[in-house]
Amino acid sequence: MNKLLTSPVLVILVLALGLLPVQVVTPSATSGRAAAPILTGADQVDRYLPYLKGKRIALVVNQTSIIGTRPSVDSLLSRGVKIVKVFGPEHGFRGNASNGAKVSDEVDAKTGIPVISLYGKNKKPSREQLADVDLLIYDIQDVGARFYTYINTLDHVMEACAENGKELMILDRPNPNGYLVDGPILDDHLHSGIGMHRIPISHGLTIAEFAQLINGEGWLPNRAQCKLRIVKVANYAHDMPYELPVFPSPNLNTQQSILLYPSICWFEGTIISQGRGTYMPFTVLGAPALKGQYSFSFKPVSLKGMSETPLHQDTDCYGLDLRQYDTAKLRKSKQLNLAWLMELYKAYPDKERFFDATQSKQMGNFDKLAGTENLKKQIIAGTPEAEIRKSWEPGLSGFKTLRKKYLLYP
């Protein structure tokens, strides 16, 4: 456990000075860390339910927000919690909207609760939408990558809470890629919807730790501070493997895809398909032009709720099958895999098209996904991997030191 966060004197000093407006609900100590089951913040109902009594609650949740095996909304309603509205992120409240698709406001058919989209006409709750809310609760499973948009949603919600004097409770969840802190730091001029913060591609933080980072580094407008109340995960450490009980989005539909995602998503800025339009997205890589160089093939098709118009639709793609790739190699190296990017660029016959985002029709250009203009230039130039990694310094090492101030778990 990080000594900065566990020292009573320092915690009292920080709170007294108003530097970190946060209350952390810490689970009871357990012996034998490996033997005790991991319990999410949401699962520890007794630790936060009394605080909800008599309050008008808004939830920032999606299909990953469960207590035990029940959706959090249903479970909290059954316990008498007054939920006045739900805010939904990318992919929607029920998690069935395609990547990048705008999500509309609605009324939840099951509960009758208004659902307001934070991935449509507005990105953060408005003053009017928060007028009848006493407390917001954020409970969404993240996967620890800069370009995964739920940390953007967190940032926007924190901004709205700070502006309107609302407290934000975070029911924390493990990061399945919590062991991995790697990649180039985002350049400021490449700030976008797939890269809001000056962090590496894989940041290794839980959502609650990331919230503390946003507050602590003054990343909200005018260095505003969001009042946080955190319910920690029990019996968790960053290096622990964690298998998600509910997949976080339509195209991260296997544990393998979740673990490969930080090393594969930057292919969305290339002509290479990552398997969108198949039932094995983010576990395969390929393109029609690689026929004859690879024997493995797949064919993207239109899949409603996953990828309606995937790259290379209805065309055989040839390339790499990573479904059986041993992800323990990533855990052992604690590095993103650069070899696949370097290999497929070298193999691709029409290199001028490889990084052409207008041809790829995907989520963004490669530079914004990578967070730097250098990586594309280095791949094109055939720069050795060791030299590429060296170019990520000193920014990466600086971030690794910075994040230690905000860790809640060893």
UniProtKB/TrEMBL annotation:
MF-aspect GO terms: peptidoglycan beta-N-acetylmuramidase activity
Pfam families: NamZ_C, NamZ_N
Cited InterPro entries: NamZ (IPR008302), NamZ_C (IPR048503), NamZ_N (IPR048502)
Residue ranges of domain Peptidoglycan beta-N-acetylmuramidase NamZ C-terminal in the record: 259-409
Domain Peptidoglycan beta-N-acetylmuramidase NamZ N-terminal: 57-255
Gene3D superfamilies listed in its UniProt record: 3.90.1150.140, Uncharacterised protein PF07075, DUF1343
Protein name (database record): DUF1343 domain-containing protein
Record organism: Spirosoma radiotolerans
